[in-house]
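Homework help board

Subject: predicted structure for assignment chain

Our instructor gave us this sequence and asked us to write out the predicted structure in token form, then describe one feature. I got the tokens but I'm not sure how to describe them. Can anyone check?
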Amino acid sequence: MSVSSFETGEGSVSADTDPSSAFPSGRHLLPQGEKGRAEPPHSQTAPYVLQQTLSVYRAIELAKAKRVLKWQRDPEGMRLRILEAAKQEFAAHGLAGARVDRIAANAGANKRMLYYHVGNKEDLYLAVLEGAYEKIRSEERGLDLEHLDPPEAIERLIDFTWNYFLRNPEFLALLNTENLAKARHLKRSTKVKSMHSPFVEMIRTVVRRGVESGDFRVAVDPVQLYISIAALCFFYLSNSATLSVIFGRDLLKKEARDERLAHMVALVLAALTGKSTADFGKAVKPGLRSPAHQPV
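My token output:
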């Protein structure tokens, strides 16, 4: 017997079945006589119907109990499924257009589970935002920038940021939604600022090493540097549809994406080193890309 159904003599009945609809009339429970006339078994019609109805209720309650036990045995798995479904919903429809019913359905949950694991709609949206930032910061920590020469470290950071945005368009959509709200929800977060401090220090260390080695001419502010890198990637991708029409190019075809990445790397390294963009060639060195960060 499945979690959401049970077997009766008439077939499978959902755990959400209304018993009155399963047995709309006592006549369905009685043997049929001539011309469809119901014959009460042993003239005990009322007790027979009552017994069968109670059986239906018991089976429904048992199915519901099993369904509850299933998600209670794996609460973290259920929470992750809710957050993933919510991320897709908020990215596609924004906060105002997102529907809790759709999130619950896509997560294989119900509203009660959703409220239990995360909270109301705005709490869920903030949890999705925090999760989105945590994911990108976590992957950035794995870039191993501290063991690369400073120019190579910056090149790898640009390559990662570009390809991360390409692989995770829902991240860009969430950023657009929250910026339209003037970061009203992000201001409530107690996690986001602490996530970014180590990241800023990682960039600061790369820049300082570059100045000390003579590779970079100036110790640029690490926050400004990262905002510039993110902006070069973000604007191109978030406006690719309109820009493709305006300039008569498909800005998302592979050749165009590769050209854009090479241009961004040359532009940023030229600014840091004081050299010409021509000194950095037209292609990113293949060895700087780890398998996890290959272009899509």
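Reply (TA_rk): Your tokens look well-formed. For the description, you could write something like this. The radius of gyration is 30 Å. That's the kind of observation they're looking for.
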